[in-house]
TrEMBL record:
Protein name in the entry: Aldehyde dehydrogenase
UniProt-listed PROSITE patterns: ALDEHYDE_DEHYDR_GLU
Source organism of this protein record: Tumebacillus flagellatus
Domain Aldehyde dehydrogenase: 3-450
Catalytic machinery residues: E233, C267
Length: 509
């Protein structure tokens, strides 16, 4: 049996390996999920929400144990494991407990006058079985959130957690086992790329993927073979624009936290800063001062995935070769751990990978701009569009700039935190992905929207049905002019024939 090795990235300690699933095991899991799907879909939403409540309470009751375990698998500080990976899950669970009934209730919509007497509404129905392929940077939050959203909407789910932190998949499995879901409703398929490919080949009814652009393309191509819908939550290269009238202390604090929290391994990390020329030197001094205060294991954690450390080093080498200056940091630990020093870089431009490609590590490159138009142009000069930040005390300017940024989210005098509001949709544009979750759309994205037009059945026909007649044509011409024309009085001239034809739908032909 093949296994997934595991270490604590912050200490180098070897942790228990996790057995890897075969393709046959994935297919068997899909069969179990298919068998369970009708029963779970027909379970009243109120009962499904009771299971979600049990999960929320279990997480809260065991939060210290879960936090310690999660930190050991990922190298995170326990503070960041709790505040960024666990607390947001309990928050969104509570949000859906409160709002899911309304979100998934049939929604009435208006009916055109030509169908008077009918009513129209939208129903939200489960899709079936959802395949969730999760990343390693926030392996708890970015696994559990789409899974619980799918379950609340009435679907079964199979999670393929990241092989870079396989113990987290075991941890999630244990949490869900504690709430007593029916067999087959939720399963965890442990493994690497082959397991993910097997899950796609098993033809779930939707695939929800969080990860890199390159892997997202492959999953989308494989899913297209069977027309499986996909949602892709991909990478970012998030810009932070700092105007000269910004609160300097807040902007510097935001840049340091936004770049170095979780060792920069956040899809919405501050990956490039554009500072207005007048504020550049004071801003840089503040950022360097605050970065120097970060201490390994005290406010600053380890990276999680060794290949990502190599990407960080590659981006820094490219930048330095093209004239950039490393102001502080820039070195990986040489002690068997995955620590990488928090790094501030100046003298950067858009010829460098550091300013164009997703670095996904603890690096903060800083560049200057002169005008608002230049700041917007630089921020939008990216294949990514996940999040952006604008810092200024002029709220009119902030909102004006925010409207011009091509991004799935914009924070004003904030960084990253829009993703933590469960009421807001989350997702990117351009190569940062497609689709949205969180908020109401987080349940709708795992639902089939069924449009229903219901007639009481008392009319003998509709105005558009056979038999056709010149009077019918006159009525439709008059109705078109009356409802939509520039001179509606013309339509009123036909009111008698319109009324006669509409009432005639109740008569036998």
């Amino acid at each position: 049996m093949s296994t997934l090795p595991q270490i604590n990235p912050a200490t180098g300690e070897k942790l228990p390996s996790v057995p890897e699933w075969t393709a046959d095991e994935v297919l068997a899991a899909m069969e179990r999920a298919r068998a369970a799907a009708p029963g779970w879909a027909s379970t009243p939403l109120s009962q499904r929400l009771l299971a979600i409540k049990r999960l929320r309470e279990y997480l809260a009751d065991h939060v210290e144990e879960i936090t310690r375990e999660l930190a050991s698998y990922t190298g995170k500080l326990e503070t960041e494991a709790l505040s960024l990976d666990i607390f947001p899950v309990t928050d969104i669970l509570a949000y859906y407990e409160k709002h899911a009934e309304k979100i998934l209730a049939p929604r009435r919509v208006k009916t055109p006058i030509v169908f008077f007497g009918n009513r129209s509404y939208i129903e939200y129905k489960p899709m079936g079985v959802i395949g969730v392929i999760a990343p390693w940077n926030f392996p708890f939050y970015l696994s559990v959130t789409p899974v619980i959203s799918a379950l609340i909407a009435g679907n079964c789910a199979i999670l393929k957690p990241s092989e870079a932190a396989p113990g987290v998949g075991v941890l999630i499995e244990r949490c869900f086992q504690a709430i007593g879901l029916p067999d087959g409703v939720f399963q965890v398929a442990h493994g690497g790329r082959e397991t993910g490919a097997a899950l796609t080949a098993a033809r779930p009814d939707k695939i929800f993927f969080t990860g890199s652009v390159a892997t997202g393309r492959k999953i989308m191509a494989a899913a297209a073979e069977h027309l499986i819908p996909v949602e892709l939550e991909l990478g970012g290269k998030d810009p932070m624009i700092v105007f000269s009238d910004a609160n300097l202390e807040r902007a510097a604090n935001a840049a340091v936290w936004g770049a170095f929290t979780n060792a920069g391994q956040v899809c919405m990390s501050v990956e490039r800063v554009y500072v207005q020329e007048e504020l550049y030197h004071p801003f840089l001094a503040k950022v360097l001062e605050k970065t120097a205060q970060l201490r390994r294991g005290e406010g600053y954690g380890s990276m999680t995935y060794a290949p990502q450390v190599e990407i960080v080093q590659k981006h820094l080498a490219d930048a330095v070769a093209k004239g950039a200056k490393i102001e502080c940091g820039g070195r990986a630990a040489n002690d068997g751990t995955l620590y990488f020093e928090p790094t501030v870089v100046t003298g950067v431009d858009h010829s460098m990978q550091l300013m164009t490609d997703e670095t996904f590590g603890p690096v903060l490159p800083i560049m200057t701009f002169r005008t608002e138009d230049e700041a917007v142009r630089l921020a939008n000069d990216s294949v990514y569009g996940l999040n952006a930040s604008v810092f200024t005390l002029d709220m009119a300017k902030a909102e004006r700039v925010a409207r011009r940024l091509v991004s799935g989210a914009v924070c004003i005098n904030e960084v990253i935190t829009s993703v933590a509001n469960p009421h807001l949709p989350f997702g990117g544009v351009k190569q940062s992905g497609m689709g949205r979750y969180h908020g109401p759309i987080g349940l709708h994205t795992f639902s089939h929207e069924t449009s229903v037009m219901a007639s009481p059945g008392k009319k003998q026909r509709e105005i558009s049905w056979h038999p056709y007649s010149p009077a019918r044509d006159e009525a439709l011409v008059g109705l078109t002019r009356l409802l939509y024309g520039g001179n509606r009085a013309q339509g009123l001239k036909s009111w008698k024939v319109i009324l006669r034809e509409l009432l005639g739908t109740y008569k036998k032909s």
